[in-house]
Each structure stands twice: as structure tokens, then as C-alpha cells.
Amino acid sequence: MGTLRALVLCCTLKPSPAPSSAELLGREVLAALADHDVDGELVRVVDHRVKFGVSTDEGDGDGWPAIRAKLMDAQILVVATPIWLGQPSSVCKMVLERLDAELSETDAEGRLSTYGKVATVAVVGNEDGAHHVTAEVLQALNDVGFTVAASAATYWVGEAMGGTDYRDAGPKPDTTGSATRTLANNAAHLAHLLAKQPYPAG
Hints:
This protein is α/β, with parallel strands linked by helices. The protein has one domain: Flavodoxin domain (Rossmann fold, 3-Layer(aba) Sandwich). It has helices spanning about 20-35, 65-75, 90-100, 130-145, 175-195; strands spanning about 5-10, 40-45, 75-85, 85-90, 120-125, 145-155. Strands 1, 2, 3, 4, 5 and 6 form a six-stranded mixed beta sheet that branches. α1 links the parallel β1 and β2. α1 crosses α5 (about 175-195). The longest helix has 21 residues, at about 175-195.
């Protein structure tokens, strides 16, 4: 098997260098993927001048085209987002809106440019909502051409009304850690298969 690429889009609201639990979980996913011949990098979206819109390039210094180029070079996408009011972060929603443009981007055989790319999600928060956020994000990514592997999500939520962040909660090898390893195993397996045998032309 050849080495594949993964891109983590960290959708925290906090610019660097502020600590981010979403970034921590995203980096843990990258570490787990590395065990399956997958290299990768993490981009904290809020650090870039990404404009609102639904095109591949909103012009005038838009930061999305550079991020999109990294996405096009990757076979696995990890969207790492916190939960706010039971919803994906506003940064995550902006990313999904920008990905709407992929519905118009096709290869020479008429397939969406995202075909063959595997989507996963990593969610952190201090209240319930991880399943809802996972459902929203994975459905949107599937709509724009990404393939979703079995058990393609990992998450951690703290006690309701609590103040403990994922980064402060200590080791979680049998819960979030187990889900992260399963995500990496299945996403890498599927991405390797799709790299060898792409979807047929429509």
C-alpha cells in the first residue's frame, strides 16, 4: 500500500496560539492514521482569511483556495469541530458552505472531484450533541461527493453544564481513544481501496 494524505480542518473559533480541544482531537486522529500509512497535516481554518461564499474562490485575498488545494491533494478529510448550542461551530458551517462548490467541479470523466475522498469527523464539547453534529457534518460531506467509512466519527463530550475541556480531561484510551483508532483503521482502509479502484464514470 502506498502512503496516502489526510487533511484535518480544525473548526475551532479560537485563532492560534490559543489552546483548542478540537485541534487536540484532530491531531490524535492524524496520529492514529499514521499507523495506516497515512501522512497528514492540520489547518486551523480561523487562522486564514476564509470568506463566506459557495464558490471555490471568492477573490480578493480569500484564504479558501489554498486550503482547497491541500484538500484536493488529500485522500482523507477530517473535520474537527467543537459543539456550540448543540450545533457544529460557525467555522465548520462555513467550511461546508464552501464545499458546496464541489458539486460543480468534475474530472475528465464527469465524476465529482471529491469522489474517492473519505470523510470523517471529530467532535468535542461540554454538553450533548455529538451525534447531531456528526450527522449534520457527514451528511453534508456525503452530499458533495465524499465517501463515509463505517464508524467514521470520534467524539468526546463532558458533563452537561460542566467546564472541563477535552484537553484537560486526561487519557481516554477506552472511549474516545478507541473510537479514534477505529475511525483511522476504517477510513485508511477505505481510502486505500478507493485509491486502487476509483468509482466508475457516471
